[in-house]
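Input chain follows. Return structure tokens only.
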Amino acid sequence: MAVAWQCTGLRWPDAQGPSVLGWRRGAAVRGSAQAYGAEFGFRAEGERRCVGARGNACPVGAVVPGRSTGARCPECARLDRAHSVAADTIADDPRTYRVYLAWFGPGMVKVGITAEQREAARLREQGAVVFSWLGRGPLMACRRTEELLRSALGVPDRIPYARKRAVRGALPGAAERRAEVAELYGRAVALEGAGWPDSLERLPFEAVDHAGLFGLDGAVEVAWAVTELVAGGAVAGRLVAAAGPDLHLATAADGVVVLDTRLMTGWELVAADPRAGVGVPVADIGGGGVQGGLF
């Protein structure tokens, strides 16, 4: 009988190394590095259940929707965000933060903040193809800078993953990617003296390009994106790229399929034949429309 594990998500622990899928079965935990060119395959079993919050199991083991990327019931989702910097529920965090500018594709540049101790892990987790630091300082100074760029320059603080995925198949060259971040950096630092917080230290422009790390430095013809897992449904192929939470799997029959690994959490997963292809609902992100059935 196949041994079932639960996926705890995709991490990017090393600026130079591969992504790592986390796994848990009872008290046992492990990680598996995702090497490009390697075969990959699993099958979901049973029902998808809430993963709990902040290290605690869901008290009722609630069943959660297959399309949810959070894999949490409403109560656990509220608990998880109760002490969240992203949700603005912590105003007195004493740590040093950094403001960054991140590029995901042509015309897709956002501003954000991350704890300095995390270095650039947050950028890799979001799938930022290129980024540069803008400044560092206390949390609220970074928040005010983020808001300043939104209000004065119209820079968003969020870009939907669907938009990021849609452009990965044909990214422009490194010089063009860098130039778009540099242009925004110049506009941002021009705001010094016009609302820029005194406690925010400006950092020099330095573009960091993740295209090679993500496996996106060549053409990756993306055809489909998995929209949810289903009991008994397999996802399998050869790993050709990864960015943020996404794995890009080449299949013999259906081209490159993007799997958001956040959809894997909450399921019991067992190994599947890497030649099994994709047997779950998908959406066409190559320009053809939506497929609501199964391959």
